[in-house]
């Protein structure tokens, strides 16, 4: 650990975002947790991370379906810590339906939360990174940022979009010679509490063992037939924030058990 940086992880009161936030905290960085709720539990989670990591972690509520709240999340973090050095755009939602039945409000919400929020947070954070002369932006895309599946039109459009946004952000950072990088991490299936619940449901529905559900139902597109873990995502984010990764920019890093090799 060289330098203490300030990191925002959007959508980080559960799942992948929480895993990445914990990994950055354990490196000693200041961390801002976020979601749209503002419960006692959200702030208690931040306190428990601070205690375990010996860093400063705070929780800032912002509804990232709204552009102004996405920008003010970055501004509030900078008010607290002086600047924002690391921005992890992770918040995301999903809806599954054929295009002709896909509710327009779900399309709008997915594009707003999974894609437009990253445009707004990036726009707010870039001037701070330019000023300090260092920055890292990591966008959590998906294997569905590189491939498609039926019935997930909005999610796939948003995830392909965020891969493109990552490339443009990287090129603008390079033009500005600002010692900053932007990349997209593209996970396949990751073992989050949400996915654990789905495994249980599938075991009951198909009367199958856990192993059978993983092999025959859930991980058919993941050749290793294993989930990625939130710790592996956290470790990759920590690496991308290191000096060794300073020439990795404008690209995608797949953590997908071979999904995109097929
Ligand atoms: P999750 O549901 O556990 O986490 C999503 C987070 O986003 C939560 O903290 C939620 O509160 C937050 N969020 C939702 N709407 C929000 C809003 N309007 N404003 C602010 N925060 C909001 O899901 P996850 O599996 O951890 O997913 C995290 C990211 O990883 C998503 O972008 C998802 O698309 C991506 N991803 C997940 C997987 C997987 O297998 N779990 C695979 C590939 C990509």
Automatic annotation (TrEMBL):
Q: Name one GO molecular function term.
A: 3-hydroxybutyrate dehydrogenase activity
Q: Please name the Gene3D superfamilies in this protein's record.
A: NAD(P)-binding Rossmann-like Domain
Q: Which Pfam families match?
A: adh_short_C2
The domain of life for this entry's organism is: Bacteria
Listed InterPro entries = 3-OHbutyrate_DH, NAD(P)-bd_dom_sf, SDR, SDR_fam
Protein name in UniProt = 3-hydroxybutyrate dehydrogenase
Q: Which family does it belong to?
A: Belongs to the short-chain dehydrogenases/reductases (SDR) family.
In its UniProt entry, the species of origin is given as: Ahrensia marina
């Amino acid at each position: 650990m060289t330098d203490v940086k300030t990191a925002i992880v959007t959508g980080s009161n559960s799942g992948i975002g929480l895993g990445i936030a914990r990994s950055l905290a354990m490196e000693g960085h200041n961390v801002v947790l976020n979601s749209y709720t503002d419960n006692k539990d959200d702030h208690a989670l931040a306190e428990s991370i601070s205690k375990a990591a010996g860093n400063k972690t705070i929780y800032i509520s912002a509804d990232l379906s709204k552009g102004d709240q996405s920008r003010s999340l970055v501004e509030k973090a900078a008010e607290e810590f002086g600047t924002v050095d690391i921005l992890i755009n992770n918040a995301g939602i999903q809806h599954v339906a054929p295009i002709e039945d896909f509710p327009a409000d779900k399309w709008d919400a997915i594009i707003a939360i999974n894609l437009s929020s990253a445009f707004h947070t990036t726009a707010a954070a870039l001037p701070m990174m330019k000023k300090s002369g260092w920055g890292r932006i990591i966008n959590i895309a998906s294997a569905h940022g590189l491939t498609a599946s039926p019935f997930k039109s909005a999610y796939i459009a948003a995830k392909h979009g965020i891969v493109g946004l990552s490339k443009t952000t990287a090129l603008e950072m390079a033009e500005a010679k600002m010692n900053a990088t932007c990349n997209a991490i593209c996970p396949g299936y990751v073992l989050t509490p949400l996915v654990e619940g789905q495994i249980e449901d599938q075991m009951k529905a198909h009367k199958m063992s856990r192993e059978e559900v993983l092999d025959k139902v859930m991980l058919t597109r993941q050749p290793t037939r294993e989930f990625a873990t939130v710790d592996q995502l956290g470790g990759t984010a920590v690496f991308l924030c290191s000096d060794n990764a300073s020439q990795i920019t404008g690209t995608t890093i797949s953590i997908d058990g071979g999904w995109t090799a097929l």
